[in-house]
Amino acid sequence: xxxNLANRPVRILTNSIxxxxxxxxxxxxxxxxxxxxxxxxxxxxxxxxxxxEAVASLKKYxxxxxxxxxxxxxxEGGTNTNQLVVESEMTMIQHSESAVVLADSSxxxxxxxxxxxHWSQIAHLVTDSIxxxxxxxxxxxxxTGDR
Length: 147
Known about the structure:
The chain is α/β, with parallel strands linked by helices. Helix content is 23%, strand content 27%. It contains four helices and ten strands. A three-stranded parallel β-sheet has the order 5-8-10. Strands 6-7-9 form a three-stranded antiparallel β-sheet, with helices on one face. Helix 3 (52-59) runs parallel beside helix 4 (83-94).
């Protein structure tokens, strides 16, 4: 998504050092995206800023859209690997008008340790494939057979 946002007049709040760097590197216009980065502890191997400082920083802002990361998806919602990461994701969702999950189909085969969100908190899911599920198990989603 970074290439689609880098040269648009948008403000991006992120707790990801990698996303902030990517958008800044792709920006070729002075009127391109402005990136705000939270404070916090750098979670090893992920480039994510997490912990109390990250959550406190996120609470200062309101956003039109949140794009929470996800380690796994199931009929209840999304899961992730670490409580500190999930606390930041939950704060982003709570301080946005709408949340959008971008996840490839491999996420449907995983269920991580910590519940990150419930489907009722998510406005849109963008994925390459939705698994066959009983109609109504995941609110607002169609089964692959319905397409």
